[in-house]
Description:
Elements: E1 6-11, H1 14-26, E2 34-38, H2 46-64, E3 70-75, H3 82-96, E4 108-111, H4 117-124, H5 144-151, H6 157-162, H7 171-174, H8 176-185
Parallel strand pairs: 1-2, 1-3, 3-4
Helix pairs in contact: 2-3
Amino acid sequence: MRKRRRLHVLCEDALQQRFVERLADRWGIGPRQRKIDASPRARGSAAQYVLERYTDAVRQWRAESHDANVGLLVVVDGDEHGVARRRQQLAQKLKESKQEPIAPSDPVAVVVPTWHVETWIAWLCGHRPIDEQTRYKEDDEGGRAVARKIEHGEYSPQRAIDAWTPPASGEEAHVPSLTDARREVHRLGI
């Protein structure tokens, strides 16, 4: 497989950033070949940060798109919106900024962990049952146990990426956003 030597990343937070960094390491894209823009901590909605910065990220990628070895990876939680709605929101941002839509052949991948990246980490680390309707955060009774395992390192981005392939049985039924993301990252030529 042809690998992208450089990767621009726009993501929500430190946990998504660590997840993407481990994934990029797996793909052979080291720290010097990636530029990551993550929302500063405690600065409002992290999803909103990605939505607001998306057009600039696409503009920056397009400025370098003459180099076939440059890709753009956008990571935004689906939250209550889901994959399709988040992609629609991003497409609308491009339209509003009078930019061309992303072409199917462009090395631009938009992945939407739903409800959020904690769902993917828990699934990849073997947590069952799991679904995309539960918030796996400390403030949610249903997701608190997973949130604590992530906080204490029992479930981590590294362990999740170690289990990236092959997909676990039942993945498409339980975490369809992860199945979608696996297809989407192929746009990067990885």
